[in-house]
Design a protein that fits this description.
By secondary structure, the protein is α+β, with helices and mostly antiparallel strands. 47% of the residues lie in helices and 18% in strands. It folds into three domains: 17-129, Alpha-Beta Plaits; 143-162 and 277-499, no CATH class; 169-273, Chitinase A, domain 3 (Roll). It is built from 14 helices and 14 strands.
Length: 503
């Protein structure tokens, strides 16, 4: 993969020839040639820098013969120079050709096969995702419903129960697995009829699905029917054979539609034991249960604000998706599939879901229909254009604030969340989600706001889901009913209409 440049303002003329052609909807193919003279100059510069800063045995610093340096460091120098000049040439190409990428550039062939050969030019081709051409619809006067949630005793108790589970201590177990037990497993995934593994994970974690999930659960992002019953009949040390079909929205294209065999070996298991209320009070340093409940109330208020904002954004997304029409790529790329899922991951984490719950939701999203998957891709392009329209930028402070919000929902330190996101390469996704949210909120600021009771919103949302979903599992059906019931109990009120002036 070619590293995307931090800026496109460089005036470097690394590339001697740049050709751009359409490569289907929302994609440009760029062919770049770097002359032999440029390659020689860049290599000479790199070797000169290396010579000035390297001390070899028997030679003073900066005095080692060039031939010796090239024999010892030549391959490393050529690889580093190749990476540098390809990035510089790409930056030059998108600036000269006025290309506005929305994704990372992807080489059409393996970069490892490209070699810098003295006296020869270098030509490489990359595909880059760009926003399709379309006009934004009118944004003034859109009607947006604002659900009004209340903080009930039931909601406070549910949040207290969640904190007890979150702060509980895990007890090691060997068998007789029950709902919610956490299993450490080693997983190998093979395509039907093939011996070479597609995926191997020595440190995977799965949980025993609940009854509400209908016994279904995720293993490496693949939903497995009857997983609960299979795990309950197993014990630590057992190896289990599972089957699955790769969903069409899976990140890896070689997994999509494939008949898969999974070998799962259980290496250990734990059963979370909820903490007592007294232990939660002590953990938060709040003195007594009354103070804890007040803290829960404040946290639920923040959750309600997030849910309310999310509900309003969903309506804007629905309006924009219907009002804008353009051609989308016929096949979802691995990068697009991954981006769709990471966007959902960040939003789910901010809503306070635990990692196991997030993975279950993402596995369900992977199974969505092609129409829903294409809708998510369409919204990505639309929101990118809307953010450009409003000149939306995201500061490091805003990223830190969003990380702190996720950490607060998880009950952990912000630096732990940042470390997790950084190691997984997801910090850019946090910034992208913030930018989309800011653009949506800017558009909503000029909308006609209609306040409605929470139960009315829950009923409408449930009805929309039934219309859109062709295939339902007992897992999703059970959850939708439960969510609708909970949301309905959280608030009531009279319908109220307000109009906000666009700032």
């Amino acid at each position: 993969m070619v590293d995307a440049p931090a800026t496109t303002e460089s005036k470097s003329q690394t590339a001697s020839d740049i050709k751009v052609e359409d490569n289907g909807p929302a994609c440009k193919r760029i062919t770049i040639t770097i002359s032999a003279d440029t390659i020689k100059q860049k290599l000479d510069d790199q070797v000169g820098t290396l010579s000035a800063n390297t001390a070899l045995p028997g030679f003073r610093k900066g005095k080692a013969p060039r031939q010796l340096l090239e024999r010892r460091f030549g391959e490393t120098v050529r690889e580093e120079t190749k990476t540098q000049i390809m990035a510089e040439a790409y930056a030059q190409a998108i600036e000269e050709k006025d290309i506005k990428p929305v994704g990372e550039p992807e080489p059409t062939s393996d970069v490892k096969d490209l070699k810098l050969i003295p006296g020869e030019s270098l030509t490489f081709t990359i595909d880059v995702e760009v926003t399709p051409e379309f006009d934004l619809p009118p944004l003034d006067g859109i009607e947006i419903k604002k659900p009004i949630f209340e903080i009930t005793k039931e909601r406070i108790q549910a949040e207290l129960d969640r904190q007890c589970r979150q702060l509980g201590i895990a007890k090691k177990i060997d068998g007789d697995f029950q709902e919610g037990d956490i299993l450490a497993v080693q997983v190998t995934v093979n395509k039907e009829g093939e011996t070479e593994p597609l995926v191997t994970d020595q440190y995977a974690v799965i949980s025993v699905p609940s009854k509400d999930a209908g016994g279904r659960g995720p293993v490496l992002g693949l939903m497995i029917d009857g997983l609960a019953g299979i795990l309950k009949a197993a014990k630590a040390g057992d190896s289990i054979a599972l089957k699955a079909v790769g969903p069409e929205a899976y990140e890896r294209e070689d997994v999509r539609g494939a008949s898969l065999n999974l070998e799962v070996r259980i290496t250990g298991a734990e059963r979370p034991e909820p903490a007592t209320v007294e232990q939660v009070v002590e953990a938060f340093g709040l003195g007594n249960e009354e103070n804890l409940q007040e803290q829960m109330r404040l946290g639920i208020g923040q959750q309600n604000d997030n849910e309310q904002a999310s509900a309003m954004r969903e309506q804007l997304y629905d309006y924009l998706a219907k009002a804008v029409d353009f051609e989308l790529p016929k096949k979802l790329s691995a990068a697009q599939a991954s981006r769709n899922l990471e966007r959902q991951r960040i939003e789910l984490l901010e809503r306070g879901l635990m990692p196991a719950e997030v993975e279950e939701r993402l596995a369900e999203i992977r199974e969505e229909s092609e129409a829903n998957t294409q809708l998510r891709l369409k919204l990505f392009f639309v929101m990118h254009r809307l953010a450009d329209h409003f000149d939306i930028e995201v500061s490091e402070q805003e990223v830190n604030g969003r990380i702190a919000s996720i950490a607060a929902q998880r009950g952990v330190r912000p630096d732990q969340i940042r470390s997790e996101l950084s190691q997984a390469g997801r910090l850019a996704d946090v910034s992208r989600v913030i930018r989309e949210h800011k653009a949506a909120d800017k558009a909503i600021a000029g909308a006609k706001i209609v306040e409605i009771p929470a139960e009315e919103w829950a009923s409408e949302k449930s009805g929309q889901s039934k219309k859109k979903t062709k295939k339902k599992t007992s897992s999703t059906t059970g959850k939708k009913k439960t969510n609708a019931k909970n949301e309905a109990s959280e608030g009531s009120g009279k319908k109220k209409t307000t109009t906000k002036n666009k700032k």
